[in-house]
Amino acid sequence: MSDINPRARDYADIRQGVRDVCAPFDSAYWQRVDRASEYPEEFVAALTRAGWLAALIPEEFGGGGLSVTEASVILEEINRSGANSGACHAQMYVMGTVLRHGSPEQKKRYLPAIAAGQLRLQSFAVTEPTAGTDTTKIKTFAERRGDRYVVNGQKVWISRVQHSDLMILLARTTPLEKVKKRTDGLSVFLVDLRQGGGTGLTVRPIENLVHHETNELFFENYEIPADSLIGEEGLGFKYILDGMNAERILIAAECVGDGYWFIDKARTYATERIVFDRPIGRNQGVQFPIAQAYANVRAADLMRYEGARLFDAGEPCGAEANLAKMLAADASWQAANVCLQTFGGFGFANEYDVKRKFRETRLYQVAPISTNLILSFVGEHVLGMPRSF
Amino acid sequence: MKIAVCLKRVPDTTTKIVVAGDGKSIDETGVKFVPNPYDEYAIEAAIAFKEKAGAGETVVYSLGADVAQETMRTALAMGIDRGVLLQSPGSPDGFEVAKALATEIGTGGFDLVLFGKMAVDDYNHQVGIMVAELLELPCISAVSALTIDGSAVTAEREVEGGVEVVTCQLPVVITADKGINTPRLPSLKGIMAAKKKPLELKPVTLGPGGVTVTALALPPERQAGKIVGEGPDAVPALVQLLRNEAKVI
């Protein structure tokens, strides 16, 4: 059967390159990793080695110098292969903070090593137990003492810390009550995690629905060199916001990859599975939900390409990037649900991979931003209605 | 070290083949083409020997329609320096291909000319060996291990029940068997760089071939299996069928 994605011929070289890397990581590999609740280290290493996670680093720093459109194709293909980009996508875009706001020294020191896969920067510490989306309320504090900052506080849902050499950290450097605007007084740091344990940073893993490795972090008088600061002290909130549109588009592409994976599985199974002497896909009750889910994946994919096109042209794309993420996450979840229903009981068995992908794609409704927050953004900033929270 | 490597595009081995209306070629509609897997060993060897030598040039040659450029870009993405496509429509036989390649490669001053031991579409095992003959170069075919020290070549060939070790001096034509190496995957940077590498198109005119394909047929569809019984009781019947019906023992 032919490819159900009509855009599969676009960026064919990138798609083929990613498929070649993903191909050896088959169903058996993912079942083994999933059963052991492990981080897919070999898989991420293979993608890194072949340079795919350095796609967005400019060529002058040794990266691929690709556009967001092209980078989104990479992540789409990872998810389309049956894998999940959650384990590795951050290595692609977290470096954006250093690229956009780092000093020339920081860029020269870190970006070529990240591009070469020698340094892993795929951890982004913002969320806290009492402040997630309400970011300005974070309490983790970095106090300047001579040539150091001393960090105290707590973070939660910080992913891939155990598989990172570097981490971006958002902390208050001026208390909330002392700033004019609540978005002031936050700063971004590039933390070198290789300084080891017993230094005031405790990492506690959180077991959860998916296995991309996520943690609670506890900082107790954790010292970092003053030159870890990225950009200007107090402007951190702005720095983390301006990477969001690219992230939304990339995540949308992952959802699209999942969507096509689920539809492909469902249509194949529905065509081959015989019950009452005929393929179950001959029943409209089975066939139409698959067609409907496909329509929504295709529509979301268009919004993803539109967001990416605007981003690459340097035009405002906040609405499209957010809409793409929401539509694609909804479409992949619908496709997942339909796929599981089509498989019936077999969908619950590990060996068909539907179960694992079902759990993984559900995460996109919640992270890295929940659907309600996108709706509130669209309501307020695109449609001009009153703030909803 | 100057190395030539020859590449043929072949249908992906997972492609379902359909015989075209003329009854002697395949219908290429919707067929995905890939580099011949044995040629990938040759490409990897070319890149690795140049890397080891620290200097030189690797050139990939192919003969066929313009669409073969896509497949050649894969070789460039893996690390081959440049490509030459000998443009020729139709399906020439092995000898015609060998003559065209030999004419082109013969003037290149190559130390090493690499081929896959065969193409997985036609199983002819011919072109590499013919090119060596036409160039009056030694040829070691179906090589499963290869070392080059200065100009001394040592190759291993897997022969019936063992390994044959042969030596010769450069220049030489080698056809690669599996086991010789593990071809690298094109990296992102390799794929991007390949777009800018030179790929020269040269029209060639081939004479009429010596061999003509007159018909192409798919293997008969597999028949359903037969279950003769279960356990030790079924053994005599099974042996009987294997001997008299299937005639395999």
Description:
The complex is a heterodimer of chains A (389) and B (249). Chain A is built from 13 helices and ten strands. Chain A is of the alpha+beta class and 389 residues long. In chain A, the strands form three sheets. A four-stranded mixed sheet of chain A has the order 1-4-5-8. A four-stranded antiparallel sheet of chain A has the order 2-3-7-6, with no helix packed on it. The termini of chain A are far apart. With 249 residues, chain B is α/β, with parallel strands linked by helices. Chain B has helices at residues 37-53, 68-78, 94-106, 127-135, 188-194, 235-244, and strands spanning 2-6, 9-11, 33-35, 57-64, 82-87, 112-116, 139-149, 152-159, 162-169, 172-176, 199-203. In chain B, the strands form two sheets. Chain B has a nine-stranded mixed sheet, sandwiched between helices. A two-stranded antiparallel sheet of chain B has the order 2-3. In chain B, α2 (68-78) packs across α5 and α3 (94-106) crosses α4 (127-135). Chain B is globular, with a radius of gyration of 21 Å. The mean pLDDT of chain B is 94. The A-B interface holds A 2, 13-14, 17, 20-21, 49-52, 54-55, 64-66 and B 30, 73, 77, 185-192, 194-195.
